[in-house]
Amino acid sequence: MGMPNWLKPGITGAVCGAIIAAIGGFSFAGWETGGSAKAMATDAADSAVMQALVPICVSQAMADPDSASKLEAIKSASSYKRGDSVADAGWATMPGSENASKVLARACAAELSKQ
C-alpha cells in the first residue's frame, strides 16, 4: 500500500516549514542551544561574583597601612602586571581562602587604578 498523492505535498511542506523555522529561530529569534545558554549563565554568574568581591578587595586595600606605597607601585606597573601586584599584596585573597584569585586581582587592580 503506497502513500496517497495528496499527502506528499503536505509532508514536504511540513518538513520544509520545520527547517525554515529552525534556521530562523536560531539565527534571528534568539533561540539558544543548551551549551551556549550554559556558557552565558556561567559568564553572568562569574560577573556577579566579581561585582560582589571587588568592593571587598578595595576595602582590604584601603585598610592596609602601607596601601599608599603599594597603590603607587600598582599604578606605575604595566597594565598586565597590576593584577599580580594586587595578588602579591594579599588584597585579592578573600577571608577564608588561602590563595588569591587572579581574576579578582585583575578586576580589583582596574578599580584601584581609577582611584
How do the helices and strands line up, and which of them pair or pack?
Layout (H helix, E strand, L loop, with lengths): L7 H20 L6 H30 L3 H10 L5 H8 L12 H13 L1
Helix pairs in contact: 2-5, 3-4, 4-5
Question: What features would you describe in this structure?
Answer:
This protein has 115 residues and is an all-alpha fold. It has one domain. Helices cover 70% and strands 0% of the residues. It is built from 5 helices and no strands. The chain has helices at 8-27, 34-63, 67-76, 82-89, 102-114. The longest helix is centred in the middle third of the chain and has 30 residues, at 34-63. It is rod-shaped and about 85 Å long. The model has no long low-confidence stretch (mean pLDDT 88).
Q: Which properties best describe this structure?
A:
70% helix, mainly alpha, rod-shaped, single chain, 115 residues
Largest sheet: none
Helix fraction?
over 70%
N- and C-termini, Cα separation = 81 Å
Strand content: under 5%
Overall body shape: rod-shaped
Q: Tally the helices: what do you get? A: 5
Q: Could you say how many structural domains there are in total?
A: 1
The secondary-structure element order is HHHHH
